[in-house]
Amino acid sequence: MSLLSAQRICVRYGATEVLHDVSLAIEAGEIVTILGPNGSGKSTLLRALLGIVPVAEGGILRSEGLRIGYVPQKLAVDRSMPITVRRFLSLPVRVGDAAAAEALARVGMGGQEGQQMSDLSGGQLQRVLLARALIDRPGLLMLDEPTQGLDQQGEAAFYRLIEEVRTLTGAAILMVSHDLHVVMAASDRVICLNGHICCEGTPRVVSNAPEYRALFGLGTQGALALYRHEHDHEHADGPAHHHHDHDHHGHKHGQKHGHGHDHAG
């Protein structure tokens, strides 16, 4: 059985149908990215899958005992109210020091318990939100536009972190992305959403789909860029030949390009 599945769900706000006839399934350990323009229902879909928003039609099934970690789209930190990273990790449910330290270390924020939340950079804040979501050792991690507001370097670093989390924990990851032109290459599937599922497949397949190009107004020249991350060190299970680069779809990996990439926000 899938970790989580939606079967022909519809979500309505009053008379307005925000999601129509959406079906999807998330399998253990996979990374799924949902792409869509503003107003396409991406956040609503996540909230419906979490059970926060009721569905008007269809149904949602979760595997028994599934723990879900959720990283919300935005967190407003009241700068007039001091709260440390450590205290934040214990909201709303207190967690032990060891669990908090382990979660922070896992996201590259080890030893930062005493930092004020209001002093964190955008990237650091996202890492703390991720640490909080990881404390319960979820089988599925949902992230709502986690790289919004980060620059290209910050976005790439966060994508690397997500890949590492999947490798270390085995958790499946469902991520909503606002960046219509760049997607993490580690995504096993990309789902294009615009009130309904327009197209779905591997990043390479989706990038060539006319529905994707039509949805994002890319015409025939548009290209979905893959963010690829590979390490340059050896793992315990053997040597790896790795490097960082950005790879356009339609090109073989490793091919050099003489042009840069536009990263739309």
What is the CATH superfamily classification of the largest domain? P-loop containing nucleotide triphosphate hydrolases
Q: Which structural class is indicated by helix and strand composition?
A: alpha/beta
Task: Write down the domain tally.
Answer: 2
Distance between the termini: 36 Å
How is the main sheet built?
6 strands, mixed
CATH domain fold name of the largest domain: Rossmann fold
Shape verdict: globular
What is the alpha-carbon Rg in Å?
19 Å
List the helices and strands in order.
EEEHEEHHHEHEEEEHHEE
**Low-pLDDT residue intervals, each spanning 5 or more residues:** 230-265
Key words describing this protein structure:
disordered C terminus, 12 strands, 7 helices, 2 domains, 25% helix, globular, 265 residues
Word description of this protein:
The protein is α/β, with parallel strands linked by helices and 265 residues long. The protein folds into two domains: 28-46 and 139-251, Rossmann fold (3-Layer(aba) Sandwich); 70-137, no CATH class. Helices cover 25% and strands 26% of the residues. A six-stranded mixed beta sheet has the order 5-6-7-3-9-10, with helices on both faces. Helix 3 (97-106) crosses helix 4 (122-134). It is globular. 32% of the residues are buried. The model is unreliable at 230-265 (pLDDT under 50).
